[in-house]
Amino acid sequence: MSDATSSKVDRKTILQSVGGVSIPGGVEAMVDAMSQRHFSVLRMHRNRFRDHGDETLSLANRAPFSTKPIDWYSLGLRVTDADARPSRHLAYAGGDYYLQDAGSLLALAAAGCDGDSLKGKIVCDLCAAPGGKASAMLEAVGETGFLLANEPIRSRLAPLKYNLARTGSDRYAISSLDPDVLAKRLGGVFDCVIIDAPCSGQALMSKGRQSESAMSMKQITHSAARQNRILDAAMALLRHDGRLIYSTCTFAHAENESQMQRLIERGDARPDQVASLTPYQSDDGCYRLWPHVHQCAGAFAAAFRSCLDPIKAKATKSGGKKSQRNKCDAKTIEELGRWFDPSLIDGLNVAIDGAVMFAYPSDMPIWMGRVAVAGPEIAYRTGKTWKPSHEAALRTGPSRLAIESAALSCDQAQAFVTGNAVNSIAQSTTAAQGWMVARYQGRPLGWVKSDGRIGKNHLPMSARMSGEVIG
To answer: Is 323 a residue whose pLDDT tops 70?
Structure first.
C-alpha cells in the first residue's frame, strides 16, 4: 500500500474493523507501517542440515548471509544484510530455506512446526496453496507422520506440488476438494488441521495485493461467513482432542477472535494455549502480530482443541470418488530400476494416473486413496517413454530413491540452475552415462542425463533461476 493509498484509509474504519482488540502504539502508527514494504524472511528447512551432515551448525550459520532470529519462530531468520539477495543463492535452489512473510510463521509456531509435537501425526492443511505452511507441516511430521495438503482451487496445485517436493519428503498426498466435501468423504481422522483461511486480506495492503476495500464491512462480513463454513468442515475432520490451527492475514475481529468465540460458545472447541506465544496473545488461544511492532505485514493465529466426538465418513457405493489409478506392471517397475534403487521402489505404493507415476509410502493411510489427486511424483510419460520426475530428484534422507549422482562444483551448479548443460560431468560422477541427480554440497538440484562428457539439463523451467546466481 502506497502512502497515497494509506491516506485514503479512514482511521475510524480500522478501529471498527479491529473491534475490541487494543492496537499497541495506536492506530496512527499502524497505518504508517501499513504503507511500508516488509521483506520476506527465511524459514530454515528443519531436516536439510541433518540429512547432509551439517546438523552441528548453529541456525544463524546455516544462512549464507547475516541474519537475526525471528522471536516467535525458532527456525525463522530475518536478513540483516541490505545487499543480500536470498532468492539468488544456490542455498535457496538446494532447499536450505523458504522465503515467507514473517507473519506467516505465527501459525507455524502455534502448530509447533519448529518442535517435535507433530512427529508421527496425521495432519491436514485445508487451504494449502501455495505451500508455505504445508511444507513446514510436512517437515514437522517426520518420517512416520503424514500430510494431506488440500487445495480446493485446481489452478493453484502446481506451486503446491513444487513446494512440497522441495522438502525432500514423500510423506504426503494432495487433494482438491471443497472443505465440506472433504469432511464428508473422510470424517474425523486428523490429529491436527491447519487453516490459512481466505479472508479480507487487510495485511496484504502493504504488499499492494489488496485495496482499501479490504477494510469495508461488506468484505469482512462476506469473508467471515465463508470462514464459518470452512471452520465447521475443519472441526468435522478432527479427532476428539485434535488440534485446530486457524490463521488469517487480516486484522478484522470478526474474522479472527470472533470466529474462535463462536466455536467456544457452541461447545465445539476449547483454547489450547501456546506458552511461547504468550507475548502475542490477544485472547484465549489467540495471537496477533502487528506491522508497526513486529516488522511484518501482520498476522493472526489461533490454537484450539476439538471437544467433539469424531464424525464418521459418510458411506457411498464407491467408497468415495472412484480412483483412476492403476498399479504398475512388472515391466514398468523394472524400467524404474534404471534410475531408482529397486529395493526402495519395492517398498512403495507405486501407481499410474494417466501420464504420471506416483510412489506413496507403504504405510500411507488407506483412506488417502479416496481423495488424492496427486502426491510424490517419480516419473512422467512422453509418448511411450517414461522419464524420471523432477520431484523424485529432490527426495532426501529416507525418501531418497536415485541411484546415481553427480557432485557439481560451484561453477557447474550455477550453470545448472540457470538451465545450462553441465560440462566435464565425468569429473563429477563415477557413472559413465545416463540419468543422475545433480547435487551441490550434497543438496539435490535436479536431473541431468550424461553422455559421458556433458550432462544435459532436465531442470523444469519453473525451477530455473535467471540472472546472477550466488554460490
So the answer is: no
415 labeled part of a ligand binding site = no
**Residue 86 placed within a domain:** no
Residue 84, pLDDT score = 94
Whether 116 maps to a domain, the answer reads: yes
- Total tally of structural domains belonging to the chain: 3
Measured between alpha carbons, how far is residue 157 from residues 152, 188, 202, 368, 371 in Å? 9, 24, 24, 17, 14
341 exposure class (CB count in 10 Å sphere: 0-12, 13-18, 19+): middle
101 has binding-site annotation: no
Q: Is 127 annotated as a binding residue?
A: yes
User: H-helix or E-strand containing 245?
Assistant: strand 238-248
For residue 386, the surrounding DSSP H or E stretch is strand 385-388
**Measured distance CA(299)–CA(103) in Å, rounded:** 5
90: its cell numbers = 544456490
Write the CA distances from 163 to 98, 132, 158, 174, 288, integer angstroms.
Answer: 9, 7, 9, 12, 26
Whole-angstrom distance, CA of residue 49 vs CA of residue 57: 8
Q: Which of 306, 339, 364 is the last residue of a domain?
A: 306
Range of the domain at 428: 404-463
Active site residues: 249
Dist CA 125 CA 306 (whole Å) = 16
Cis omega (within 30 of 0) on the bond before 130? yes
Q: Which of 27-41, 177-191, 300-314 has the highest mean pLDDT?
A: 177-191
- Residue 294 has what DSSP assignment? H
Q: Give the pLDDT confidence of 414-429 residue by residue, as tens digits.
A: 999 999 999 888 766 6
